[in-house]
Amino acid sequence: MSKVFAVYGASGCGRSLMPVANEQLRILEGDTDSQIVFIDDALDDNITVNGYTAMNYTKFKSIKNDDKFVLIAIANSSIRQKIADKLVKDGISLWTVQGMTTLIMDEVSIDAGAALSPFVTIAANVTIGKCFHANLYSYVEHDCIIGDYVTFAPRVSCNGNIHIHDHAYIGTGAVIKQGTPDKPLIIGKGAIVGMGAVVTKEVPAGAVVIGNPARLLNK
């Protein structure tokens, strides 16, 4: 029996990731029989989005197939976690998708549900948690540890020996200075690094930093 794959979310993020997901399925995995659809609870049922069938989660769940895989294409990390918990509870697998031009080096561990857009690079000896989003042209350099539900906007430069905790958001074009093996640079849980910020020191949990060099906006 063929499998069923879905991209959860038919907004901009999902519509950008769908062709990446479809390309992976058809070319990298050689699977031409499986179905791929959008899931979006905000849309009317039985419509198409960019040529793909879209349905709500209830209908997707009702499809009689034991092999279902879902990529959660929603930027809000809290919503991403709620959906991931729902999928796991319902026995539906998290799907990791990466672009054909994504480069992953040696000794890299990436947990389930990652969305790695085209031209993303993950360097050697990196550990990444659940449902990581890395948008176009972002990179993670060597010896970094990234938690669950972390989001990179496009062109994030995450240099070596950096620890980014769960639910952190790193804005477009941000640069995070390299840490050291004995003192990694830490981005705390739920922190937000603003667009174009240059981070040279630790960012506390829940903080928002902006500018060059990055400074605390609020906490």
UniProtKB/TrEMBL annotation:
The record marks D143 as: Increases basicity of active site His. One of its GO terms (molecular function) is transferase activity. InterPro entries: AcTrfase_PglD-like, PglD_N, Trans_hexapeptide_repeat, Trimer_LpxA-like_sf. CoA binds at Y169, T172, K177, M195, T200, K201. The keyword 4Fe-4S does not apply. Residues 6-87 form the PglD N-terminal domain. UDP binds at C13, D40, D41, A75. Acetyl-CoA binds at G160, T172, K177, M195, T200. Keywords: Nucleotide-binding, Transferase. It holds the Pfam family PglD_N. The keyword Transferase applies. The active site is at H142 (proton acceptor). Belongs to the transferase hexapeptide repeat family. PANTHER family: ACETYLTRANSFERASE, UDP-N-ACETYLBACILLOSAMINE N-ACETYLTRANSFERASE. This is Acetyl transferase protein.
